Amino acid sequence: MRQFERRQQLLQRIHSQGRQSVDSLAGEFGVSVQTLRGDIRHLADKGLVLRRQGEVLPFPEQENIGYDQRQIVNVAGKRQIAARAASLVQDHQALFLGTGTTVEQLADALSDKQGLHIMTNNLHALIKLCQLKCELVVAGGRVRRRDQDVIGGDAWRFFQRYRADVGIVSVGGMDSHGQLYDYNDDEVMAREALLAHSSYRVLVLDKTKFDLPLRCSAGRLSDYDAVVTDVPLPDKLRSPLAAQGVRFMG
């Protein structure tokens, strides 16, 4: 396994399973403790994990890690989600895209669509979308520099001005009961306006967000017409919602 792939899997393991022993991780990844410590030092220097004596912990969840840091977490899973979500979009539709790295992956997955009208507050996605043959409208206002997006009141007013056939968003986390969460009210505010003006609402959620309750309530799975994941959700969440017509892809 190459160094980059090992560090990617290591980061995913720590964020999905919590506190880990350095010795046990070295054994599981088949490398020396010294090599594993080098990987952890690299991740810690980037602010992705916390080091303790003989252990490594996820970065504290009071605030999301930076956008560039999140881009290396579960890349394969996010691309898989993007391809599935793109199948829900038809040519010539109006599309809202929210913030986040999983939504950003949609910019590549939509390359074969024709005549789309896309509105977004995700500046990372915007850069990629500029390569597509589509009409683009971007939210204006105060930019959150770390994540390079526009949220809060500026994004709320932007999405209030339009209507979309499909709205695609992500969230910060989900607990075991299907309650959704995010890191701050500004993110929730922008998403609520986006969803309120979307005829068909799609949630994209990779496995690192499972069992991750955060500070701000951000709705429930039942608020969406489709939920797209990289691994199946537990049956206890899927079954009652499927009966209500929610579509699951994952």
UniProtKB/TrEMBL annotation:
<keyword id="KW-0238">DNA-binding</keyword>
<dbReference type="InterPro" id="IPR050313">
    <property type="entry name" value="Carb_Metab_HTH_regulators"/>
</dbReference>
<keyword id="KW-0805">Transcription regulation</keyword>
<protein>
    <submittedName>
        <fullName>DeoR/GlpR family DNA-binding transcription regulator</fullName>
    </submittedName>
</protein>
<dbReference type="InterPro" id="IPR036390">
    <property type="entry name" value="WH_DNA-bd_sf"/>
</dbReference>
<keyword id="KW-0678">Repressor</keyword>
<dbReference type="Pfam" id="PF08220">
    <property type="entry name" value="HTH_DeoR"/>
</dbReference>
<dbReference type="Pfam" id="PF00455">
    <property type="entry name" value="DeoRC"/>
</dbReference>
<keyword id="KW-0804">Transcription</keyword>
<dbReference type="GO" id="GO:0003677">
    <property type="term" value="F:DNA binding"/>
</dbReference>
<feature type="domain" description="HTH deoR-type">
    <location>
        <begin position="3"/>
        <end position="58"/>
    </location>
</feature>
<dbReference type="InterPro" id="IPR014036">
    <property type="entry name" value="DeoR-like_C"/>
</dbReference>
<dbReference type="InterPro" id="IPR036388">
    <property type="entry name" value="WH-like_DNA-bd_sf"/>
</dbReference>
<dbReference type="InterPro" id="IPR037171">
    <property type="entry name" value="NagB/RpiA_transferase-like"/>
</dbReference>
<dbReference type="InterPro" id="IPR001034">
    <property type="entry name" value="DeoR_HTH"/>
</dbReference>
